[in-house]
């Protein structure tokens, strides 16, 4: 696949990944868009279509997190969470599936969370947005199935990414004790599942939990 890697604030990280993939012989572009904003999300999708003529796979993985008592969540906190974690997927997908419907082929993968399945104390707004992605996935899979477009979600447990930086080493150890496999997941665990979903042609409307048995 030709890869278009979008970033909002992590330009240097995006450039590093671009360099790594080009060393492997991949065709890669990086693009800057805040996909929580409709116009910028649409500009990303239009860039892809203008360059390659089609979109085969869309991975909606933009997201932020915040730990806060429900009674202390501000209007701004709520809107920011919904915009980044749910609206971004809506904007990108709405624009991309127009092209997929025309081609009678496509795959959308939405990155939800274990908390979208079970809910998390002190993360009500995050859990709401991530559970919204699950409903979005299931409904859209039914609607787009006749066009040969598959829509799936992945619900990771705790994964070793920047979102984990708020946990101390001691807190991470306590979490590991709760996980049957006694370890924190990696981005590669999630990427392997996305790769399988790309290769398969008969899975749609599913929410795949990757959490080491935590749930």
Q: What share of the residues lie within helices?
A: 40-55%
Strand order of the largest sheet: 3-4-5-6
Fraction in beta strands: 5-15%
Main sheet makeup: 4 strands, parallel
SS-derived structural category: alpha/beta
How far do the termini sit from each other?
A: 33 Å
The strand count comes to 6
Describe the global form: globular
Which oligomeric form is depicted?
A: single chain
Number of helices: 7
Task: Estimate the mean pLDDT confidence.
Answer: 96
Cα Rg: 17 Å
Structural write-up:
There is one protein chain. By secondary structure, the chain is α/β, with parallel strands linked by helices. Helix content is 49%, strand content 15%. It contains seven helices and six strands. It has helices at 11-23, 38-52, 75-103, 114-118, 124-144, 169-178, 187-199, and strands spanning 3-7, 28-32, 57-60, 106-111, 149-156, 207-210. The strands form two sheets. Strands 3-4-5-6 form a four-stranded parallel β-sheet, with helices on both faces. Helix 2 (38-52) runs parallel beside helix 3 and helix 3 runs parallel beside helix 5. The radius of gyration is 17 Å and the shape is globular. It starts with a strand and ends in a 5-residue tail after the last strand. The model has no long low-confidence stretch (mean pLDDT 96).
């Amino acid at each position: 696949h030709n890869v278009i890697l979008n970033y909002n604030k992590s330009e240097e990280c995006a450039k590093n990944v671009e360099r790594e993939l080009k060393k492997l012989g991949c065709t890669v572009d990086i693009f800057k868009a805040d996909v929580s904003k409709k116009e910028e999300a649409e500009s990303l999708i239009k860039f892809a279509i203008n360059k390659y003529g089609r979109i085969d796979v869309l991975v909606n993985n933009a997201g932020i997190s915040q730990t806060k008592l429900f009674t202390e969540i501000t209007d701004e906190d709520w809107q920011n969470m919904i915009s980044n974690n749910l609206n971004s997927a809506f904007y990108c997908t709405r624009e991309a599936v127009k092209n997929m419907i025309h081609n009678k082929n496509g795959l959308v993968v939405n990155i939800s969370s274990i908390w979208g399945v079970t809910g998390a104390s002190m993360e009500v707004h995050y859990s709401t947005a991530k559970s919204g992605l699950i409903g979005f996935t299931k409904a859209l899979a039914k609607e787009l199935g006749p066009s040969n477009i598959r829509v799936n979600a992945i619900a990771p447990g705790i994964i070793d990414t920047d979102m984990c930086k708020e946990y101390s080493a001691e807190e991470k150890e306590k979490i590991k004790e709760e996980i049957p496999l006694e370890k924190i997941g990696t981005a590669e665990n999630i990427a392997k599942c996305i790769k399988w979903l790309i290769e398969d042609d008969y899975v749609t409307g599913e929410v795949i939990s990757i959490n080491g048995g935590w749930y």
